[in-house]
Write a structure and sequence with these properties.
alpha/beta; Rossmann fold; 7-stranded mixed sheet; 16% strand
Amino acid sequence: MPDQSLDSHEHQLPEAPFPVDRVGHLAALCCGRRVLHIGCADDTAIEDKLADGRHLHGRLAEVADVVGLDLAADRLVSLGRHGFERLVAGSASAPPFRRGAFDDIVLGEILEHLSDPGDVLRGLRRAGLARRLIVTVPNAYSFYLARQLGRGVEVVNPDHLYTFTPVTLQTLLGRAGWKISSLRTYAWTIPTSPGRSFLGAVKRVMGDQDAGPARPRALLDNAQLWRAYRSQPFRGDGLIAVSE
């Protein structure tokens, strides 16, 4: 085995802004564009997610010309009952669309479930359905996961095969022929600055029930999360890679 210096294993992280809301950011990226949403049939708490804007396919449908693709035909039927059209049952490995049919392909929280994500990414590159690929995946370096490790606990969805880092995601996409043009993080909960959080707590105590939490523990958790993300945005819950 060749002798390698540990320096060759060190990779400088790119500069990144504060983590964003995943669904809102993807909707902004895709606004006004032709989008293929692969793995669109999220069937968990559809009504609740639609009601508060957290349903990804729902948000994409509001702002883009979107087609949904998913292997699970029964889940597509369920999604269709909520008024969505242009839902296609099929595999991401062999998508039934012509070259150049879309501007963007969105793979939101999909790669970590696949036995061979590289094969799917290479297939999409060869198919030439769109010039731009937008991927979101869990982040192995998230602040939340690191804190659970301190308790001796690993938190992972039983259906996940991978958790990605900025470098491993870039390597996976690169080997499949995709070059990342933008890499940043998202957070499931976006914290506010400690000052704004404290002001909201004061307003809550004064009677404004929508101002924010007033419990000391919630204020402390918010402050810790805000400082963690300010010092290193790649502590966010997940990664968003835009590739071409």
